[in-house]
Amino acid sequence: MLKRILISIILAVSLLSLLTPPAYAGDTQEDPDAVKTIFSYLALMMFYSDSLDPILQKDIESTEKALNKMPFVNVPEELNQPTSEFSASGITLSHSIVSLFNVWEQENTLINQYRLGEAKTLGKQIREALPQAYQQLAKLKTAAEDTGLYIKVKTLAPDNALRQSYDEVMAKIEQLKSMLDLLARPLMDLQDLSPEQLNDLLRSSDLNTLAEMLGINADQLNQLINSNDMQRLLDLLKTVNPEIFQQVLKKTDLILEVQPTTAYVGETVDFWGSLATQGEALAGRSIDLLINSSVKMTLATDSEGHFQGTFQIPYQYNHTLEVQAVYYPQAKDIGIYLGSASPVINMNILYYEANLLLEINNPAYPGRQSTLTARFDYGTAPPVERENSELYIDDTLLSHFTAPSEFTRSIQIESTAKTGNHIVTLTAPAKGRYAPAYADCIMDIKLATVQLDMGFPWISLMPGHIGLTGRAYSELGSLENADVNITMEKDFLICNTGQNGTIATRLNLELELSLLGSRAMVVSIQPREPWNAPLVITRNVFLINWVGLGILLEFLALMYVTFLPVKGKKDIRKKVVDSKSLAEESLQPEIAPNYSVLLAEQMAEMQGEEANTRSIVKWYRLVFKLAQRTTNSILKPQQTLREYAKTNSQKLGPISRYFYEFTLIIEKLLYSKHKLDHKDMEKSKELSQTIYEETKHENV
Amino acid sequence: MKTSSLIMIVIAIVIAVSLAAVWFYPSFTGYMTNNAMWNGIKAFAKEFKAEDVDSLDNLGDKTGYNVLISIPYLPFSESDLSNIRQFVNNGNTLILMDDFGYGNSILEHLDTQIRFDQNIVLDPLFCYKNAYFPRIIDFSAEIKGQGITAIGFNHATVLNQANEYQILAWSSNSSFLDLNNNGVKDKNESAGPFAVAAVCKSGKGTVELVSDPSLIINTMVEKNDNNQFTRYLINSKGNPDSIMLDRCHLNKSRLDIYKINMMQLRTYISNIYVMIGLIAIVLILITVFVSKKGEN
Question: pTM above 0.80?
Fold first, then answer.
């Protein structure tokens, strides 16, 4: 029955395992709720920097398009506020700058058209709007600084890509400030007039008209002029329409030329121009040269009102550059000349870009070297050596060197390096016409998996010992002198691996109370090499407490002898004897075929019959064996000799008749009182010989 | 009890348990409508009442306006391609959601110039959790008009050769194609924006392309405006009479195949004539068994 149940279980398990479908795992997606969050601060800082470009280029649409995406950036919660602030203030600032520059341009146009009253209104508008623009710029800067503080950008090396990106952001913010500063300077201002200039202005103006505009009569104006109360006069003039000075304030024309308009970064570009008023050259006047709306240099016009100079294209690696010249009336020119700005010249800037390809052999292991391969691909540009190149692992500077256009370096991984993905970054600072280059790649640091080839016994005796031999190794080689700790509850041993990581030891098992049971054997290996991972494996060993079991059996026997009643013992003994004899009978069904023959032998011996009888029986035994071999069939317990002979007559063939005849004689001998005579003896001999001969022919 | 009888009983129990397990055990395979786990599309199928299609043979015969959503992870036979072409030419809409599968074979067959790039696009800044989950925030005016502001992708690719007017959505400037699968942008790897969703005409019908099918998996469909975007794709040409999901070009586990077979069997059995026949066979078998027992 047990056999059937076992077969059923095996069958059921086999069928179920056949029907169990394997899980299909796709790799084109991941569970978004289970993945690790990874922030890219470099991408964020680059986005900051890129978003400032349209503000500098006075492009509101692009600014909004860029900064309106800010709510969707993947940043830590702590950076939500700074990023929102950066976005909001950036958009507002962009609007302000564009609006202010539009007004400034209009003011410039109006001045050139002598519409001084309107120009003054616009100038006032600019001055009123500027504080708000400065405030927005301050908010933008604070947001960028807060972001930098969070990512500890100041702790990074100056040439770190993230640090460089941050510095770029701050430089662009400074550029924005410079633009606002430019707007803060008025193209037309009557407030800074000196008393002499005011006198000149008043003398050359129509005092009656001026008095009317000031809301006073001509006498009162004359009194004011004569009393030298210049401050009151200036305060009054602030309210007056400057167009009344049209006759005295002269407009200026500023022309700027740049050659060439396409140049490489770092190249020197010539520029020249002229400042004139009503066809007359203005000599000794200061001209501001603006590069991308920020003052690059200030120079003076010569005696013919010309100015010229050179400037170097900044190493900014942007493909466009705006150049403009501005004249602001200063000192004695205030109240005489009006300011002016030249048309903007857009330059096309060229520079070399290198594709930096970086590869590292993965995986890397703590305490070992890993090989890094780098190649600068300059395209058609001539390759150069990149000085001050730096190699980082995450944020740690690894080396500072001059990088050839192609190189291979070994990187020593620290023994204490954390496992997992690390970013290896190579930065090459800008060099002349060569724009900065950087690339990074992932270095997967892992510990080598330790394998233990060791045969564990599944059963053991206690007290005793378990012999353990094996070898510990990893994909990087054998574990030498590694600490091996083997524990099995209270029993433990500490040893070390030998050369080639071999382990040969034995764990002594002390006597305990438990008799039988499975127990966990824990083998832990702590390698000496930092690149190998520790290993802990557990195997179950079935322990037999042979001492305990012996004592228990002895105790039970003692109990039996001591406490069971005599009758009971007898009964048990009887039962034991009966069961033994039954067992013997049932255990020897196979020998039944020979039982009668044996019995006959015994009887012959016991009764002291003639030797002839024994001979006949012997012959029959031999013949019977031959018959069994020929038929390949044994005598069943329930069969008589005659039945056996009949059943196998076909298989025996021609000898079956002789065998049957011999069987009848032997049955007569065994089961009847018939005494065998000489004739029977002869007949038996003849039959046995015949059978022997016949079977001999058949090669049995 | 005889051993043979015991084995028969065991086999019967095993078959019954297996059938019950196949029927009730949920699928874990991606994009399966009966998979309620993270990678299934049970929520999507329920929301849009989308029906599985296990053969494209009768696709060309469909009447009315229909939408077929195909996630082509298995190659298409010539017959399948012809059926799809016929389906689209009849004025229906094919929504082809692919990343690294066989979508380009359909596009070639439909004579459209757009192709799936099949390189992974990463976006380290505009993303959900990490760069492998790009967040798409640039859309055509029509999509913006639907109030869609962002959709989330999960291991996506991009579309190549799409005309400006065909593009429905772009990845951000900070996205890039990770050609060497190192997880970071190398200089030689092109940066965004890339087209990630597009629409084109084919015959009388429309082909809508999305460079990531994960848009509709259970854990993604509710993220950002994915649901709204999918609704737009389905209803852009009007309310369809039927929404079909091409299940025959999806990778399937053995469990899925068993489930599909069982469902087909159930459909077959639910036929009244088959049902009557089966009941008759069972009654005959019971009668024979009882009469034999009586004789014994």
Answer: no
